[in-house]
Amino acid sequence: MDKLQIEIDEKKKEITTDGYPMSIGELVNLYTSDELDIHPEFQRFFRWTILQKSKLIESILLGIPIPSIFVSQREDGVWDVVDGLQRLSTLFQFMGILFDEDKKPVKPQPLVKTEYLKLLAGKYWDKEGDQEHSFTASQRIAFKREKIDIKIVKKESHESVKFELFQRLNTLGSRLSDQEVRNCLLVLLNDDFYKWLREISNNEYFLNTLSITDRLVDEQYNMELALRFLIFKKINPNEVKTTPDLGEFLTDKMRGLATDENFDRAKEEQDFIRTFQILDFALGDFSFKRYDPNTLKFGGKFLISAYEAVAFGLGRNINQYKDELNEKLKNSIEKKVVKIWGAEGFQSKTGSGINVTSRIPTIVPLAEKIFSKK
């Protein structure tokens, strides 16, 4: 038998699925009964405009097919929404039943005119005392009877299937950043780890050193940088050599950290804060900017190669830095960072066209050696 076919047959055994259409009313009942988890934490990652939301309502009213909703059945029988969060959130918000991650109701928004239904403008599901701007009773009934195709990954499937499914559905043609997709995966995998990572990535010392744009913060790039620190502080940098895609590498390592019972969050948080406290004190937002030997100054924009060298190098030695925050420490850190910029191995691996798989294995050990006090 063909070897590929054998592999296909084996892997298909790991995935058990089902699917059937369900009315919006049935989905509402599942949601209000806590049998459908749309993960309100995800709402921060999806940025639909009111026009996009209105177009979804329009599609349902006109019977225009919308993509399937993908759910994963948990051991307790509850359905985790793997793909379709924004569609369901839009429906539930419009109907006035949506709650955010703090269990607070999300205020419905008035619709706007769409291509086919100009008179949707200003309409609500059921605005008290204002029939003119509300759907009629018959429109609400017809709306709830409309069906949406549901694809179900059953609980008998391998535990990794829903994460793979989410990642594939939300990285092909998606507007989410890589870290926003990872964050959604983290919520599905280990919500406590996600909240912890979000908390440390908003640490004052850390943000002070980054000097990244508000747009990148909105796209959770600070969380990606914090994740990179946690990963490369511990692993052998040579591990990255064999990866064809750094994003996949970070995701795999993140899943490992989130499921590792021996991962000491308290210790890692202490090391994280101490590392960036020192860098903030010594260099502030110049920590990861280019050093110019001609002007003897740091300047320009945030550089990921500088972050990889300076943050990872110090982080891998942080247990040697028990010093008080004083001028001696400040001068020492600045000299070490300047030394990194002057090192031939660093300069040759930070130019344009240098692949991360060759950069990290070179610059991280170099910086680690420079920061070492031994």
Individual helix count: 17
Instruction: Please state roughly what percent of the residues sit in beta strands, choosing from under 5%, 5-15%, 15-25%, 25-35%, 35-45% or over 45%.
Output: 5-15%
Largest sheet report: 5 strands, mixed
Question: What is the N-to-C succession of helices and strands?
Answer: HEHEHEEHHEHHHHHHHHEEHHHH
Number of separate strands: 7
- CA radius of gyration: 25 Å
Helix/strand layout:
Elements: H1 3-12, E1 17-23, H2 24-32, E2 36-37, H3 50-62, E3 69-73, E4 79-83, H4 85-94, H5 137-145, E5 147-153, H6 161-169, H7 178-189, H8 191-201, H9 204-210, H10 214-218, H11 221-232, H12 246-259, H13 265-282, E6 290-292, E7 297-299, H14 304-315, H15 327-342, H16 344-347, H17 356-371
Parallel strand pairs: 2-4, 3-5
Antiparallel strand pairs: 1-5, 3-4, 6-7
Give a description of the structure.
This protein has 374 residues and is an alpha/beta fold. The chain folds into two domains: 3-169, no CATH class; 178-371, no CATH class. The chain is 50% helix and 9% strand. The protein contains 17 helices and seven strands. The strands form two sheets. It has a five-stranded mixed sheet with strand order 1-5-3-4-2. Strands 6-7 form a two-stranded antiparallel ribbon. Strand 6 (290-292) and strand 7 form a beta hairpin. Helix 7 packs parallel to helix 12 and helix 14 (304-315) packs across helix 17 (356-371). The longest helix is centred in the C-terminal third of the chain and has 18 residues, at 265-282. The N and C termini lie far apart (59 Å).
